[in-house]
What does this fold into?
Amino acid sequence: MRILLVLMLVLGSVIARAQTYTGKVTAVKDGDTIEMLVNGKAVRIRLFGVDSPEKGQAFGEKARQYTASLCFGKVVTAKQQSRDQYRRVVAEVYLPGGGSLNLQLVKAGYAWQYTQFNKTREMALAQTEAKAARKGLWQDAHPVAPWVWRKQRRSAAR
It folds into this structure.
């Protein structure tokens, strides 16, 4: 019985990870979070392996606007990697032409590679090139990574 339970959990995890969503982007919450309409239901998607500046942080609104310019109102495909602590689908999102929205944000300088989750060479190279070209948030003399900014805000709130 215990083995059956473990198998069910593992299979459930694999199935959840392999799920693909296709739908129209109806909202862009911030640079790395969108909402899609999939079969008449809103699905919130957190972009996998990237972290954009937060609302209220330098370049936060520009990152949101850039994401919206690429995908708002368009039909995209999201390949689920996992779910986060807020129950959002964490996914690689592909634009109508097939390119990765996640990678495009890093290339344009509107997101960091979130190396805690994504260690690909392609993403690292995109970030290095954006930084060297001073694109997007890399124009700032001292850009603060969103995970650092969030931690600072939590500490200040205590």
The longest strand covers residues 20-30. The chain has five helices and seven strands. Residues 93 and 101 are 6 Å apart (CA to CA). The chain has a mean pLDDT of 91.
